[in-house]
Write a structure and sequence with these properties.
Blueprint: H1 13-30, H2 34-41, H3 45-52, H4 60-69, H5 74-79, H6 84-91, E1 108-109, H7 111-124, H8 126-136, E2 149-150, H9 152-166, H10 169-177, H11 179-183, H12 187-193, H13 198-214, E3 218-225, E4 229-236, H14 238-244, H15 252-262, E5 275-280, E6 289-294
Antiparallel strand pairs: 1-2, 3-4, 4-6, 5-6
Helix pairs in contact: 1-6, 7-8, 7-9, 9-15, 10-15
């Protein structure tokens, strides 16, 4: 039996039932005519009627063609995470539609996932970026206005997807550090460069740049600030936690991203990034996350 025909076996009846459920949900949600459905599956009307009657199973090749035609991620079908409303809106041309799961407690500006996706394109290529966006059911049109707010869940999903793809924690740290590349020619980059010292740049980052331009999921404070060292303490926003129904906004991948982001202020002065070590994290049971940050040595910028 060929690889593309394994679903024809009766031993995969549960899989076939799930496939048929997905197809029927897509048809109902997107209000497809039978003819549009047949065309999406590359099946004749007679063949599809045999499928509905249980006399024939849908082959894998037909199902993959169907997923590609309607821009549905294979990962979403396996995990059962298809947002059919978002699928319908995108199919109808509303490309900037935000899936419902990314609308709850919107305290992250789209600038956050935008710089992360920029890193994915730089390092993994445009094709993987497209697959990742399809999995999350977002499109490039969503990022027309980087001031628009979405849930922190979108950035979290991106972090975890990259960590699962690469199994490389350094990649996630580098993704956080990519905010420098994304912003260096922007007003944000200019604002960093106007700082009189690295210490002042960190103060500006915590109390101005992050809350105004990136996110308000946490309250960022400078616990310690010295000439060549500082500590950033991040306290979760209790309202966000309550709305999302969770005890923590941080996981391993998100913590790594934050370390990369926290290392960038010296880079606006043409210096190497700071060394950042997370010594407390809410994902480990603390009430806050603490990053200990050592600045690179350079005369005139401390």
């Amino acid at each position: 039996m060929g690889g593309m025909d394994f679903l024809l076996s009766s031993k995969f009846s549960d899989v076939n039932k799930r496939i048929l459920d997905i197809i029927l949900n897509v048809q109902n949600t997107m209000e497809l005519t039978d003819e549009e459905l047949f065309a999406g599956l590359n099946l004749t009307k007679a063949s599809y009627q045999k499928v509905l009657a249980g006399e024939k199973h849908i082959g894998l090749e037909s199902f993959l063609d169907f997923l590609e035609k309607f821009k549905i991620s294979i990962d979403s079908t396996v995990a059962g995470g298809i947002d059919y409303v978002a699928l319908r809106e995108h199919f109808r041309g509303n490309k900037g539609f935000v899936p419902e799961r990314y609308t709850f407690s919107p305290e992250s500006k789209l600038r956050a996932p935008a710089y992360m996706l920029d890193y994915v394109e730089r390092t993994e290529g445009n094709y993987y970026k497209m697959l990742l966006m399809r999995k999350l059911q977002i499109t490039s049109d969503l990022f027309q206005n980087l001031e628009q707010k979405v849930s922190a869940t979108l950035s979290s999903d991106l972090c975890q997807s990259i960590l699962r793809l690469t199994h490389d924690e350094k990649k996630v740290v580098d993704m956080g550090r990519n905010f420098y590349n994304f912003s260096k020619e922007s007003p944000i980059g200019n604002q960093f460069r106007q700082s009189r010292s690295i210490s002042e740049a960190y103060e500006m980052m915590c109390y101005d740049i992050i809350p105004k331009n990136v996110e308000n999921n946490c309250d960022y404070r400078l616990g310690v600030l010295k000439k060549n060292y500082c500590e950033i303490w991040a306290y979760p926003n209790s309202k966000v936690l309550h709305t999302l129904g969770t005890d923590t906004l941080t996981n391993k991948a998100f913590s790594l991203l934050r370390e990369g982001f926290a290392s960038i202020p010296p880079m606006y002065f043409g210096l190497p990034p700071s060394k950042v070590v997370t010594t407390a994290c809410v994902s480990l049971g603390f009430d806050y996350c603490r990053m200990e940050i050592s600045f690179p040595q350079a005369v005139g910028h401390q």
